[in-house]
Design brief:
Order of helices and strands: EEEHEEHEHHHEHEHEEHEHEEHEH
Oligomer: single chain
Helix content: 25-40%
Strand order of the largest sheet: 6-7-8-3-9-10
Shape: elongated
Length: 303
């Protein structure tokens, strides 16, 4: 396993940022690490990259203990933190050459050139980092995380500040890297997770609440499904909610409704009977696949 987390807890005084979290990440996996703000995501990433120690439990990266063999862990990990720290007065090439030197690389120029090409920094490589847009600064951060060719990449909000075209390029890059490396990334963009991640780990209030493929999480593990139904005119939500098996009725737009129902029941015949009784016409009806965003909200709903 590239990453093994066993019973990790982290306390800040009386506040418990992580509470007995355990999981493993295999070689070549691209894993989305999700959770609401304050759930403990960045804390876990800082533990895995040896920035802070856990209060309890152990973490292994590439077979090395983060508490006892931190230098060996750092040699095998590339890290892009949420707030990307850069030397703004340095030029792009100069900065990447500096980072490569810190990693003890000898023939640095070819690797710097390769990373500039990989992350699409070619047109900006002769500029000072302080003169770059936020999106290009993020690319510089990605390049420094990968320049020493680590086995594991840990990326905290890697696409923050990128425009739609840059998003496509960086997502494709992460997916390519994931074919050979282990990638663990944190993001709030659910479409990004569905596009590039093999697996999803969700934490809430410091506890692990889900660990599976996104397709499995979307398949109805919460014992509820949904259908979309469109009528020819308006209808009251409370009447739809009174149909046997219906858990919740929400207007999507116009006369189109999302009907959440018990997964053990098919409510479509009852919806047709309801339409006939109310003198309505059904213009369309189809099953509505739960998105990862809906699953995330269900698992991390507070209060």
């Amino acid at each position: 396993m590239s990453i093994t987390v066993n019973g990790i807890s982290k306390l800040y005084g009386a506040q418990k940022a992580l509470d007995n979290v355990s999981f493993t990440v295999g070689s070549g996996e691209v894993v989305g690490f999700l959770g609401p703000n304050g759930a403990g995501k960045s804390t876990m990433m800082k533990i895995l990259t040896c920035f802070i120690p856990p209060s309890n439990g152990t973490a292994m990266v590439c077979g090395f203990d983060t508490g006892k063999e931190s230098l060996k862990v750092r040699r095998n990990v590339g890290y892009l933190p949420e707030h990307n720290p850069l030397y703004l007065d340095l030029y792009v090439k100069e900065y990447l050459d500096l980072v490569a030197g810190l990693h003890g690389m000898k023939d640095r120029a070819p690797r710097v050139k390769e990373m500039i090409e990989q992350v699409g920094l070619g047109p900006e490589q002769h500029k000072r980092i302080g003169a770059l847009s936020k999106g290009y600064r993020q690319r510089v951060g990605l390049a420094q995380a990968m320049i020493h060719d680590p086995e594991v990449l840990i990326l905290d909000e890697p696409t923050s500040g990128l425009d739609p075209n840059q998003l496509v390029d960086v997502r494709a890059l992460i997916k390519r890297i994931g074919e050979k490396k282990t990638v663990m990334l944190s993001t709030h963009i659910m479409q990004e997770v569905e596009a590039i991640c093999d697996r999803v780990i969700i934490i809430d209030k410091g506890k692990l609440v889900a660990d599976d493929k996104s397709s499995v999480l979307r398949s109805g593990t919460q014992q509820r499904e949904a259908v979309e139904v469109e009528f020819d005119r308006d209808v009251q939500a409370n009447l739809l909610a009174n149909i046997p098996g219906v858990l919740h009725a929400q207007r999507k737009e116009g006369h189109l409704w999302i009907i959440a129902h018990d997964a053990s029941m098919d409510v479509r015949p009852a919806l047709f009977r309801f339409a006939v009784d109310q003198g309505l016409q059904v213009l369309g009806m189809q099953k509505s696949e739960r998105g990862l965003e809906e699953v995330f909200k269900e698992l991390t709903r507070r209060g």
